[in-house]
Amino acid sequence: MKQLTKIVILLIVVVAALTGCKKKDIGTREQLIGRWQSGQEYMVFYDENAGDGYAWGKEWNEGEGTVESDLDGEDYHGNGWFRWKKGSDYITIVAQLSISEAEAAVDCEISVLTDETLTFYNARRKQTKTFTKIR
Amino acid sequence: MKRTLKIVGATLGGLLTMVVLVVCIAMYVVFTPKRLTPIVNRVADSLLTCPHELEEVNLTFVRTFPNFGLAIKGLYIINPVDGAPSDTLLAVPELIVSVDVMKALDGDVVIRRFTLSDAEANLYIAADGATNFDILRLSVDTTETDTTPSQWQLKSLRWDEDMQIRANAVRLKDERDSIDAALQGTQVRLAALRDGARLEVDVEHVSATMGEIRYADGVAMHLSLPVRVENKEERRVRIERADMAVNEFALTVDGVVTALESWTAVQYDCDVTVTTNEWHLSSLMALLPEQYSRMVPKEIVADGDVQMQVHAMGRYDSLTMPVVDAEIWLRNGQGHYDKKVLPYYFDAVDADLMAHVDLNVKTQTTADLKRLYVRTGKTDITLSGKVTDILKGGKEFALANPMCLLNAQMNVHMPDADYWLASDKGTSWVKGQMKGTMKVKTRLDDVTAMNLNKIQLQGDLAIRDFAVQYEDSILADADHLRLTFTAPKVERKSMDKNILSADCQLEADRLHADMKGMPLLADMQNVRICASAEMNTKDTTAIPTLDAEFALGSLVADMDTIHAQTTHAQGKASLAATKRDKTMPRLMVNFSADDMNARMGESIKVNTGALSIEAASRYNKKADNLLLKWNPRLHFDLKQGHADLAALGTPVEVPQIKFNYSNRDFTIDTSRIVLGRSDFSLAGEVKNMGKWLRHQDTLQGTLRFTSDYTDVNEMLALVNRLNSATDTTTVAEDKTSATETTENEPFMVPERVDLALKTVVKRADVFDQHLKNLGGQLYVKDGKLILEEMGFICEAAKLQLTAMYRTPRKNHIYVGLDYHMVDIDLQQLIGMIPQLDTLVPMLKEFRGAAQFHIAAETYVNSHYDIKYSTLRGACSIEGKDLKVLDNETFSTMAKILMFKKKTENKIDSISAQIALYKDEVTVYPFCVTMDNYMVAVGGNHYLDMNFDYHASLLKPLYIGVDVKGNLDDLKIRPAKCRFAKDFRPLFHRDVDTHSAELRQIISSSLKKNVKIQ
């Protein structure tokens, strides 16, 4: 019995440890949809279905001389356009290149997502970038 | 005998004594002045209508021997008329008249001799035509005769022998014609001949004015006019050597004059020749009234001897004039115009001119210039020709518009023309001797009005030892030069009177030109240029028409460091107005040569075989683009071209280039270039250049680029060499234009262009790769420059490349590439793309065939700086059955790691996916399994060359290692196994499928575009 108790406790600890490691959701998909700004950088997350659970989005940096109208007529390819899907604490961004059908897929970790704030966190670089919803 | 003599002598003596006695008695007893004076007075009364006086009348015999005569002293004829300069018409100190006494006694006065000495006369003609000398009463008063029948009456009066008048002063005042003349020392002799008479007039001093013009001022005059009646019934008289002279200007008149109706009626038939002596022009000019002499411009100074022979023949009456043929000679002529304007002194001028003057049919008047010789300096010109249409038809005497047809024989010493080249900007001169002929046909008005289009010119000129220098800048010379020209052209395109046209031909055995300003040096052999021109003289906006045909035996030209040479060059060139608009030029040039050599210093040497260029152009001033302005049409054909460019270091061979260009079509029929070891050929067609430039249509075209062999390494070396040469020569320029360089505009892909360049390269060497069958297309379409699916085979792999350059706007330029390699040896892959060793370090440890796919794109600004926010990329490396390390190393490692004996030196597969997003490269974890070991590697790499990799040993035990930092500062730390859940799902259960999904997205999307197998 003592042995069994030990095993049960161990299992409970292990399960607790395992469930405790599971990542916690940050914000919701709906909170993400909208227009965000960080300095001269902009990101827009649309709700429009792009297939496979993805939606369309776009980004540009006016500090580099790019304006939103530069993205017009690009048919969601290249030039800042991407498909996005929200994970628990990250956003998967898949950008299809103009040159071919190749796609660059990355996960962008987020640390804060509220109705007004979106903060990306780069754990490897230990850098954050915070966007404010503007619409 | 003696007696007889005595008797004869006595008889004669008696007779003589009787005669003397009779004469003495008659003179001193019978016809004393007291008796004669009243008689003569009565005669005078009967003859004259005005008051007169006679002092005394004596009978004279000695002075009028053998006739008796009357010596009248103190004869005064008074006829006061208002306006006359004097009441005295005639004052004669002595008048001797010889008459036939017997007939005179019967009333028939026959004057045998009439001598009037030292007379003075004042003649006057009033404005109404009344005169003060109309005083003779020739009709006999019969009434008086009837009343005094016993007295002497004048029945007739006639003149029979000589008449002499010597007048000291004669004054004539004619108010009707405004003439005022004074003659001094006048002698008039009228001598009767057998069948006629001789009139001789000598005046020592004549002064005369008419109106305001003084026609004579102290000139001497002479007239000797012998007249013989040839036929009294026909009233035909002959004038034999009638001499007339004014000072030294004398002329002789010979001929026959017939009075047609009566002696007094002005109706004659003439056949008269007038011959002058040589008249000295300067003296003649001095004799001319000032009003006339000043008509000759002061700038003209002329001299010479003029002689004329004038023949007048025909009727002279109030309606008809005789026809005159005159021959005029000018000898020893000389003179000049204002030397500031025309610095030539003409001497040895010799002229022979025939003139035909018909005042009845005035249009028949002509002049025939038999010869006019003019010499100035060492130049002489001989003219001949004919002038017609001199006078207008009709009653009025008026100059018409003479038609001149002149031939000139020219022998021009060309240095005499230096004056015309003179300039302030430098020394100008011309040398040579020009000989030839010129013909001119023109009307005088066209010359004065400079109607060049109506002047017909024809010339054939040969110049020997020709040399000319202009303003120290242009120097040309030729041994033999021949110039022929015809104006207007023989075949005129337009008969418009305003069109000026000319044909000309230039031939030279050698022509050398040195234009120092440029500087250009040209030497031509066997030059032949035929040209024709048409120009509208009234409409200055109209484009002249020029046609030229040229042939050169050879041409050698040097300009600065450029040297060009060609043989047997020939061609045509033309300039004309377009059909739609006469102000717009249309240009055509055809040029061909057997060969051409050109050299620019030692840096560029070009020589060609046969060369043919046909070019045409229509100018459109409304267009704003050069090509639209000139609308060129070009046919270019070059064979056997060869170029040596020092900067390249490799000769360029052009076996053939043949193309046609117009703004509608640009067709390259053939082109082949051999550069070093490489050869190229380009052919195809480009359409709508004009419409594209006018923004009306899309520029479309398809070109085909083929090459049997291309050595890219050599090309790159050549480009580098060219760049180095350019850099060396432009260092100074770069310094001064550094700002400009930074402001360089990016290349913008033209809009509305649809061009495709199809490329077929059979073999190519790129680095150490030997490529085969390179094929693909280069597009320019919709503002994009696309290198599409360029496929090729090298020893290491099959490759496919797509690249794109797009310029939506100047500060937002797209650059992208899509590159695939199939069956690539990993070692060679790293050799071709060394950066992979940094991204995936373990790759260099593998041997074997793999697939490599990469696609990347970004936008750049106008300075080609990357916009990182737009940087995207994906890369996939996949291999199967790869060898790991070499066998020896593997054996060593196998012992250390205690591999099983059966373990082979290979792994089943490797599949690595890499994503590039903004400035971060993500290497997704990939796993390698060998023997009992399993290793997974993944991480991130940043464009600042820092990285963060993690390696997890998943079998036989779990060990993790983090590798961070950069190559200079590498930090390796033990860490938790990060990739266990990716590759050991059995242990962790919770498989990280998301990472696998992303890898799958990258891998599969990259392969979608692969066409090579």
Largest sheet of chain B: 6 strands, antiparallel, barrel
The major β-sheet of chain A equals: 8 strands, antiparallel, barrel
- Give, in order, the helices and strands of chain A: HHEEEEEEEE
Which overall shape of chain B is indicated by the principal axes computed on the Cα atoms?
A: rod-shaped
Helix count of chain B, per DSSP?
19
The share of residues in extended strands of chain B comes to over 45%
User: Average pLDDT across residues of chain B?
Assistant: 83
Shape of chain A, please?
Answer: globular
Give the N-terminus to C-terminus distance of chain B in angstroms. Answer: 177 Å
Give the largest chain-chain interface (CB within 8 Å). A-B, 30 and 41 residues
Mean pLDDT of chain A: 83
Tell me the structural class of chain A: alpha+beta
- How many domains make up the coordinates of chain A? 1
Q: Could you give the order of strands across the largest sheet of chain B?
A: 25-26-29-30-28-27
Number of strands of chain B: 48
**CATH domain class name of chain A:** Mainly Beta
Query: Unreliable runs of chain B, pLDDT <50, ≥5 residues?
Result: 140-150, 729-742
SS element count, helices of chain A = 2
Estimated helix fraction of chain A: 10-25%
